[in-house]
Structures are given as structure tokens and as C-alpha cells.
Amino acid sequence: MKNAKRSKNSSINSNLNVSGSIFIDMDANRRRVDKLLSDKWKIERELEQIQAECKHSKQVIKQVADTTSSSFRHVCESCGHPLGYLSPEEAVTFLKKS
Ligand SMILES: [Zn+2]
């Protein structure tokens, strides 16, 4: 058994590519995940940066989804930063309009 493997190994150097490519695929997935996570981090930082610099000069009412439900909020039209909940009066007015 051992001898057979050994003789195979010495004769199939070109077959190293087969096992090599499997390793490279796994590695590529890991690298893709790493890249996506780092892109995600960069994107989140960029959004934070934009929202931090934004003057939030124009508010709009939008439906914002959070973990438990979605509700109407005041958000900045420019950067999407949530600026506050609607008062009951505002909610009524908004729902009447739409
Ligand atoms: Zn803004």
C-alpha cells in the first residue's frame, strides 16, 4: 500500500495540480470572504463618514426596517441616516397623504 502510493507520487508529479487546485479553491473562497468582509467594513466606515459629515438638511419620511418590525421614520434624504420617529400626529398625517 505504502509502496504503491510512493511509486504513484513519484510518477504523477503533474497530478499535483488536482489536489493543488482543490486547496486553491478553498483558499480562494476564504480570500473572497476575507475580501467581502473587508469591503463590508470599508463600506460601513464610508457610510458612517458620509453620515457624520452630512448636515441632514432635508428630511423625508421613509419606512425603515429594523430587526423586529418596520416603521416610519424621519430619515435624511441625502444619506439615509435615521433622524427620529414620527409623532402620532405626523404618522396620521403621513398615512392620510399616502
Ligand atoms: Zn444626512
Short account of what is shown:
This protein has 98 residues and is α+β, with helices and mostly antiparallel strands. It has helices at 2-11, 16-53, 88-97, and strands spanning 59-65, 70-76, 82-85.
How is the secondary structure organized here?
Blueprint: H1 2-11, H2 16-53, E1 59-65, E2 70-76, E3 82-85, H3 88-97
Antiparallel strand pairs: 1-2, 2-3
Zinc ion (ZN) binds at residues 51, 54, 56, 76, 78-79, 81.
Which tags fit this structure?
single chain, 98 residues, alpha+beta, 2 domains, three-stranded antiparallel beta sheet, 3 helices, 59% helix, binds zinc ion
Distinct ligand kinds: zinc ion
Helix percent reads 55-70%
Mean pLDDT: 82
Strand order of the largest sheet: 1-2-3
Approximate shape:
elongated
Tally of helical segments: 3
Order of helices and strands: HHEEEH
Taking pLDDT < 50 over at least 5 consecutive residues as the criterion, the unreliable ranges are none
Task: Give the CA-CA distance, first to last residue.
Answer: 77 Å
Explain this structure:
It is a single chain. It contains 3 helices and 3 strands; from the N terminus they run ααβββα. With 98 residues, it is α+β, with helices and mostly antiparallel strands. It folds into 2 domains: 2-52; 55-97, no CATH class. The mean pLDDT is 82. The structure holds zinc ion.
